[in-house]
Structure formats: C-alpha cells, structure tokens
Amino acid sequence: MFTVPDRLKPTYDVVIIGAGGHGLAAAYYLARDHGIHNVAVLERGYIGGGNTGRNTTIIRSNYLTPEGVKFYDESVRLWQDLAQDFDLNLFYSTRGHFTLAHTDASMRTMRWRAEVNKHYGVDSEVVDAQEVQRAVPMMDIRCGGHSPPVLGALYHAPGAIARHDAVAWGYGRGADRRGVEIHQNTEVLSIDTEECESGRAVVGVTTNRGRISTRKVLCAVAGSTPGMLKMVGLSSPIYIHPLQAMVSEPVKPWLDPVIVSGSLHVYVSQSARGELVMGASLDPYELHSTRSTLDFVESLSAHMLELFPFLSDVRVMRQWAGMADMTPDFSPIMGLTPVAGFYIDAGWGTWGFKATPVCGKTMSHTVATNRTHPLIDAFGYDRFSRFELTGEKGAASVGH
Ligand code: PYC
After folding, report:
1. Residue 308 near ligand 1, beta carbon < 6 Å
2. Could you tell me if residue 130 is inside a domain?
C-alpha cells in the first residue's frame, strides 16, 4: 500500500513525528487540503503500531463540555465519509452506545451530558433500565446481585466502531499517493532549535538515519510525548499510564450496541468477526510500557460476568496494552507551543482513536497557517499556566 523511500531528503516543509492515525491524518490533510506535499512522517516502529492499533475502536461524541462535544461531533461527521475518501473498507459500523448508570450520582451526570449533547445537536438521551434490557436481552441488569444494578443509561445512537489498523493504512496510503514520505524504523534523536525574535524556533530534526532541515515539526506520539517535549525544552503535566484491552474467541452475534459501565470498569463491543472487544480502566500507576497482565484479565473477566454471566465458558484469545498520555483535565493538548514551528497533538488519555479525523483536519490547518484552528482553541498548551482547564473527566468511559 505504501512506497518505502530508501533515504531521507535533506529538507522537508513539515516533519511529522509519529505514524499513528493522528500523524498520518495530519499528513493526508496537509497534502490534500493545503497543497503541502513535501512532508516526512517519521516513525520509530511501524505504521499504526502505537495506540492506533491498541485501542478498542469506540467512536462517539457524547462528551460533557461544549468544546468536547463540538470537537468530537465534527470527528463523527468526518468518519462517515472516510471509507469512501480512502476507497478502503474501514468496517465503520454504527451500533448505538449505552453508558450504564448504577447510581443516582451517575444518572445525574448522564442527564447533564444528555442536555449538553442535545444543545449542540448531538443525539443522546437518558433511558431507563427496561430500555437497556430491551436493547440487550442477554444482560443481567441486576448484576448478579453482587454489584449495584443498572438504573438507566445515556444512550447515544451515533456510537460506532471501526477497524482501527485500516484507518492508519487509509490515511497512510492517501498521504503517500499525494507525495508524503513515510519513514518507518526512523527514530528521532533530537529536535534542533535556534534563537529567534520570539524565543526559540525549530530548524531541524536529527534521526538515526541522518539530519533533516525543517521549520515545522508536528509531534503526534501518544505515550512518548514527555520525551519529545524535553527535546525542545518544554514540559507539560502529561503523565503516562498503561491502558489494557483484550478480545474473546469469536462467538455468534448477540451484542449489537457498545456497552460501557463506569461502575464495573467495563466497555465491550462485538466485532464483525464475532470477537468481544473489551477494556477496563487505566492501570493505577505511571508506567512507560506496553506489557499486559494476568491481573487485568482476571478482574475484567469478573466484571464482565456480572453483566453477562452466560459468557463464563468463552475464552479470551489475546490481550495487549497501550500507553495513554493523561492530562489533569482529561482534555488533549493541541496546537501551537512557545517554540516557533513546534506543534503538538498529545494528551489523548483514553480517547484518541475516535478523534483521528478531526485531529488530522485541525492540526493540518494549524500547521499550514500557523494559526490555531477554532475547534481546538480550548485545548491549548498554555491553558494550564492560565488555569483555564477544560474538565472532561465526566465523559470518560470508565472511572480512572
Ligand atoms: O472514549 O469511548 C471511549 C473509550 C473507550 C475505551 C477507552 N476510551
């Protein structure tokens, strides 16, 4: 699907660090919408090998803050046309999405989210436990009597899933066909800056395959952001926690919607292949690693069985982990930075996959024009020093 360039050019108009969905989407829209084709995407590993290929593929826009709702709503809109844009089947499948509430406090949060969503034209409503039961007859809404029962849910009809690695391939192939170079196995060793009127400015990147001159670098490396920021003398409040997931063996289709329970720390959907794709909360400690644990499989399985006891004989086939860039307000960090020509797309926490198209659109605009796209105004790097946070924790799928 891709050209494999054998060497780096001495100069590019833009260098993007990270060939995950976000970096490749930015490259695609830079070439397609802004006419900037002299772009290199540098990847230490392989295309889509980071969080793009390690998530549970949930797409939704039922956020809590007006900024979050508008941003993710635009992403859902972009998702609808993506397979056609790429001429590639992404297995995009609109399923509906239930966020279960097991307590009065979470019912209140669901009502709040539903009101904000409706205000911005996003299809969300609060439903009672009987409606959940009608949609998923196989669910034990009493949770076996061990955990608080399901009282109701936030139902979000546009909730969807997609084949995650195909998204990276689609953006990568589209960018490649428009002249962008994708260099895998290419590690960034330093980002070179020099003094300028406003402080410091990017002048190049040194890699394990040689040095490149460039005036613009976009950093899109979830899980490795702190190290990259250090290279340009910046810091951020991002801390890295592992987020694990697993899939079952394929079983007959029985689960149409996506189900999330914050109280039970579970989210699950059934893929086109019949596998149950499942995840839980972040591991509760900072760790820069993609190892996965038996503890995780045991505790997620126990919680799954409270909702779906009939699955007790179904086998788990694979498990894995990603590294999530967490921010104090659970919103991303996007846009310009104090270093001229250094742009950031980071802090995705547990929801970067669904944002892939809108990140590509807004970051390509920001890099091409050197002006923050209005949809990402609230996610600026400098918001922490101004204490103007964009608190999105209430929209997290599971408690952290
Ligand atoms: O944001 O929907 C989500 C999500 C699910 C799992 C991790 N994040």
Report:
1. no
2. yes
| Residue 216 shares a structural domain with residue 338 | yes
CA of 369 to the centre of ligand 1 (A): 31
Of ligand 1's atoms, which has the minimum distance to the CA of residue 56?
A: 6
Distance (Å, whole) CA 230 – CA 268: 37
| Strands 217-219 and 14-17, bridge-based pairing | parallel
Structure-block tokens of residue 27: 């490259």
Q: Is residue 381 part of a domain?
A: yes
Distance of CA 350 from the midpoint of ligand 1 (Å): 6
Going from the Cα of 32 to the center of ligand 1, the distance in angstroms, rounded, reads: 29
Kindly state the average pLDDT of the residues 198-220.
Answer: 98
DSSP, residue by residue, 262-299? TTTTEEEEE-TTSPEEEEEEEPSS--------HHHHHH
- Which residue, of 326, 353, 380, is where some domain finishes? 326
The two tokens of residue 384 are 């922490």
- For the Cβ of 397 lying below 6 angstroms from any atom of ligand 1, the answer is yes
Reduced to 3 states (helix: H, G, I; strand: E, B; else coil), residue 240 is strand
Out of 326, 347, 367, pick the residue that ends a domain. 326
Count of domains in the chain? 2
Whole-number Å distance between alpha carbons of 313 and 302: 12
CATH number, residue 24: 3.50.50.60
| Residue range 241-270: mean pLDDT, rounded | 97
Q: Are residues 169 and 226 in the same domain?
A: yes
Q: Is 266 in the pocket of ligand 1 (CB under 6 A)?
A: no
Identify the pLDDT of residue 389: 95
Indicate the pTM of the whole model: 0.97
The answer on 135 and 245 residing in a single domain is: yes
Residue 230 CA, ligand 1 centroid: distance in Å: 28
Task: Decide if 21 is inside a domain.
Answer: yes
Q: Does ligand 1 have an atom closer than 6 angstroms to the CB of 60? A: yes
pLDDT of residue 32: 98
Check if 350 has its Cβ closer than 6 Å to any atom of ligand 1. Answer: yes
* Confidence at residue 315, expressed as pLDDT on a 0 to 100 scale: 98
349 C-beta closer than 6 A to ligand 1: no
Domain with 230 in it: 14-55+165-237+328-396
Whether ligand 1 lies within 6 angstroms of the CB of 280 is answered as no
